[in-house]
């Protein structure tokens, strides 16, 4: 296996020593670039009480390229599609090599608290959100109960 | 006869591309290479106001020719430098900042200066730079330095910081810049800091990439690319693999009355306005309209053209068989022209009269068929001539190959030297140019409203068309029942005559467009 950059070692060290509240991220045994993530749904959001599984992968070019992150738990969210892919600017063109795994996970958590149906990835969910927000939030709650317990 | 070599190089001669005479005189040079805007102080105002499109006392520029300049990579680089250097003392800030300000404002100098003078600091900050930041430099020996990208730290690290306060080690910076440069970016590359809007700037980039000559070269290329793309008065030559940039100050507002044809040093003749192949004498907006129409109508018209014609007299359905336009109705024996539907009797002496689509007799004949059908027929009339010349232009290009064989043969069969047989390729060049002009002349004619002015235009068109066909025939079969010397004299005379007709048409349309001599319809 190729040498692991100092940067990744340091990030892993800090993530273990000083974890983000409500988020755990652990590198897989034998592959320090692949992380299993467990994220608590933020309080007073439709995802409250849920525990969501994600996978996070650091490509060879990291940190010049952003990490690849995907939800494994089914989500009802306008910026997350059926395959768990996430529409978030810092994971695309707004990525900066000075951002970290920690900041990425925090941004994803913030996205759960503040869905943005105007920049949708899942169009049907976004439409639902815009036409009847209450009902959409209710569906998101039900999905959380059903899939993220 | 010895004048032939230079004749092929006079500026109104069509583009020849690979001709050597082209580089010594001719269009490319007269408003291109030798005339330089750089040291002309009035030049910057020209885009907005001082532009004089056609009327010029300089040299022998023809009424249909516009002023332009062909730049290679060095020329484009110098052009940028000149624009930057003249603005540095005006703004009295660093060259680095001036450069970014100019690029950020798409090189619109006047509005930039205005904005800058009303609030210098804000203008600089809005562009992603910092008013009083020191010039970028590589630093080392800082105990407190940590690179936020690779987490290296300590006094031995070499790093660079920008006015925003973010600093990164040179290794990370180089990797970061390399990635962005390979994506095609240049001056828009931002500080790697999270959500930071500061620009890296050219001075810092050159400092960081000093040991990466290939990447630095790409970076400079990208800068030039964005320069040409951002300026309305510049465009790239559209020929594949051609790297020349063309500068032309005919403003967009004038493209309705001037066809800004430019000739690249690589031989490509194209329209500066729409980047299409030279489409004189039709202005850009008619070209665009026409091509859209052809796209929309191609199915209907093809069907109609292929299937349905009826005799203008007895309305019997008539099939066109063979290529001849001379139709004879099987039922009533009426003879008429397939193109204009007019009686054939008027076509016998002069086939080309068919370009007068509005002859009364043709008109009356067409009145008897439905109006929408007539509109389509009208379109088809122009379209068939348009595409005819397009096809012939392609054939003319192929003719060049046979011409070269002919030229070799002539050399063998006569005492003529290679130079002395150049008249043949000159004739073919002339033919190509005429085909292109004739082709687009039918687009112009299609949109012209019928009046006396149109008639004059159509006379010129008809003259050029006939002369072109005659020359075409001669070139295809030069020594048919003639001695080589006779053929040569004949072709030279005809080429000269065709050129006169060609220039007459171009002059007349260029002036007519300027004077709004014609009314255009939809
Ligand atoms: Zn670094
Ligand atoms: Zn910064
Ligand atoms: Zn070119
Ligand atoms: Zn054009
Ligand atoms: Zn008939
Ligand atoms: Zn006719």
Tell me what the CATH architecture of chain A is: Roll
The overall pLDDT average of chain B reads 81
Summed up, the helix count of chain B is: 17
Taken from the alpha-carbon principal axes, the silhouette of chain A is: globular
Poorly predicted runs of chain B? 1-58
Rounded radius of gyration of chain B (Å)? 30 Å
Outline type of chain B: elongated
**Radius of gyration of chain A, taken over Cα atoms and rounded to an integer in Å:** 16 Å
Oligomer: heterodimer
Organism (chain B): Linderina pennispora
GO molecular function (chain B): ubiquitin protein ligase activity; zinc ion binding
EC number (chain B): 2.3.2.31
Region (Disordered) (chain B): 1-42
What does the model show?
- The complex is a heterodimer of chains A (149) and B (522).
- Chain A has four helices and four strands; from the N terminus they run H-E-E-E-E-H-H-H.
- By secondary structure, chain A is an alpha+beta fold.
- Chain A has a single domain, classed as Ubiquitin Conjugating Enzyme, CATH 3.10.110.
- Chain A has a four-stranded antiparallel sheet with strand order 1-2-3-4.
- The longest helix of chain A has 15 residues.
- The termini of chain A are far apart.
- The model of chain A has no long low-confidence stretch (mean pLDDT 90).
- Chain B is mostly helical and 522 residues long.
- Chain B folds into three domains: 117 residues, no CATH class; 132 residues, Zinc/RING finger domain, C3HC4 (zinc finger) (Herpes Virus-1, 2-Layer Sandwich), CATH 3.30.40.10; 131 residues, Four Helix Bundle (Hemerythrin (Met), subunit A), CATH 1.20.120.1750.
- In chain B, 50% of the residues lie in helices and 7% in strands.
- Chain B has 17 helices and twelve strands.
- Chain B has a three-stranded antiparallel sheet. In chain B, strands 2-3-4 form a three-stranded antiparallel sheet.
- In chain B, strand 3 and strand 4 form a beta hairpin.
- The longest helix of chain B is centred in the C-terminal third of the chain and has 43 residues.
- The structure holds zinc ion (6 copies).
- One zinc ion binds next to loops of chain B.
- Chain B: It catalyses: [E2 ubiquitin-conjugating enzyme]-S-ubiquitinyl-L-cysteine + [acceptor protein]-L-lysine = [E2 ubiquitin-conjugating enzyme]-L-cysteine + [acceptor protein]-N(6)-ubiquitinyl-L-lysine.
- Chain B: It is an enzyme of class 2 (transferase).
- Chain B: Pfam families: Ariadne, IBR, IBR_1, UBA_ARI1.
């Amino acid at each position: 296996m190729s040498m692991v950059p100092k940067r990744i070692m340091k990030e892993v060290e800090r993530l273990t020593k000083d974890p983000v509240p409500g988020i755990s991220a652990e590198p897989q045994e034998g592959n320090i670039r692949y992380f299993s993530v467990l994220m608590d749904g933020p309080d007073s959001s439709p995802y409250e009480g849920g525990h969501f599984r994600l996978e996070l992968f650091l490509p060879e070019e990291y940190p010049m390229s952003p990490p690849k992150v995907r939800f494994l738990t089914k989500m009802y969210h306008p910026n997350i599609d059926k395959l768990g892919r996430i529409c978030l600017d810092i994971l695309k063109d707004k990525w900066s090599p000075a951002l970290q795994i920690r900041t990425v996970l925090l941004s994803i958590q913030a996205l759960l608290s503040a869905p943005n149906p105007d920049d949708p990835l899942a169009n049907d969910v976004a439409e639902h959100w815009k036409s009847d927000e209450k009902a959409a939030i209710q569906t998101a709650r039900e999905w959380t109960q059903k899939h993220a317990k | 006869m010895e004048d032939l070599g230079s004749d092929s190089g006079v500026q109104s001669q069509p583009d020849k591309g690979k001709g050597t005479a082209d580089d010594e005189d001719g269009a490319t040079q007269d408003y291109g290479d030798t005339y330089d805007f750089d040291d002309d102080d009035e030049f910057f105002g020209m885009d907005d106001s001082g532009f004089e499109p056609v009327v010029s006392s300089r040299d022998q520029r023809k009424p249909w020719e516009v002023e332009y300049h062909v730049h290679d990579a060095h020329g484009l680089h110098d052009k940028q430098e000149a624009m930057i250097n003249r603005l540095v003392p005006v703004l009295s800030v660093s060259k680095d900042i001036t450069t970014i300000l100019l690029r950020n404002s798409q090189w619109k100098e006047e509005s930039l200066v205005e904005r800058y003078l009303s609030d210098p600091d804000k203008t600089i900050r809005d562009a992603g730079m910092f008013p009083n930041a020191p010039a970028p430099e590589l630093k080392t020996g800082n105990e407190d330095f940590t690179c936020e990208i690779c987490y290296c730290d300590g006094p031995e690290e070499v790093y660079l910081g920008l006015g925003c306060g973010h600093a990164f080690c040179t290794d990370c910076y180089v990797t970061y810049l390399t990635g962005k440069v390979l994506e095609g970016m240049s001056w828009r590359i931002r500080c790697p800091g999270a959500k930071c809007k500061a620009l890296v700037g050219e001075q810092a980039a050159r400092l960081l990439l000093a040991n990466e000559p290939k990447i630095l070269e790409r970076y400079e290329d990208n800068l030039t690319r964005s320069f040409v793309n951002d300026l309305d008065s510049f465009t790239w030559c559209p020929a594949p693999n051609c790297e020349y940039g063309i500068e032309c100050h005919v403003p967009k507002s004038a493209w309705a009355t001037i066809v800004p044809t430019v000739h690249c040093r690589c031989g490509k003749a194209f329209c500066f306005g729409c980047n299409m192949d030279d489409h004189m004498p039709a202005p850009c907006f008619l070209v665009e309209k026409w091509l859209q129409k052809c796209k929309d109508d191609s199915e209907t018209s093809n069907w109609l053209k292929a299937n349905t014609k009826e005799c203008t007299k007895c309305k019997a359905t008539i099939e066109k068989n063979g290529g001849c336009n001379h139709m004879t109705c099987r039922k009533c024996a009426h003879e008429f022209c397939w193109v204009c539907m007019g009686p054939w009797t008027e076509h016998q002496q002069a086939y080309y009269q068919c370009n007068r689509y509005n002859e009364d007799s043709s008109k009356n004949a067409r009145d008897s068929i439905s109006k929408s059908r007539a509109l389509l027929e009208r379109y088809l009339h122009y379209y068939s001539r348009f595409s005819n010349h397009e096809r012939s232009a392609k054939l003319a290009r192929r003719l060049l190959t046979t011409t070269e064989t002919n030229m070799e043969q002539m050399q063998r069969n006569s005492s003529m030297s290679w130079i002395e047989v150049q008249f043949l390729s000159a004739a073919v060049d002339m033919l190509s140019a005429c085909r292109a002009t004739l082709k687009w002349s039918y687009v112009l004619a299609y949109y012209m409203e019928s009046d006396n002015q149109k008639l004059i235009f159509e006379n010129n068109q008809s003259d050029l068309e006939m002369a072109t066909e005659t020359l075409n025939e001669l070139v295809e079969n030069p020594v048919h029942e003639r001695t080589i010397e006779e053929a040569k004299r004949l072709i030279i005379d005809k080429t000269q005559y065709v050129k006169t007709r060609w220039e007459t048409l171009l002059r007349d349309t260029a002036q007519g467009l300027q004077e709004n001599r014609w009314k255009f319809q939809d």
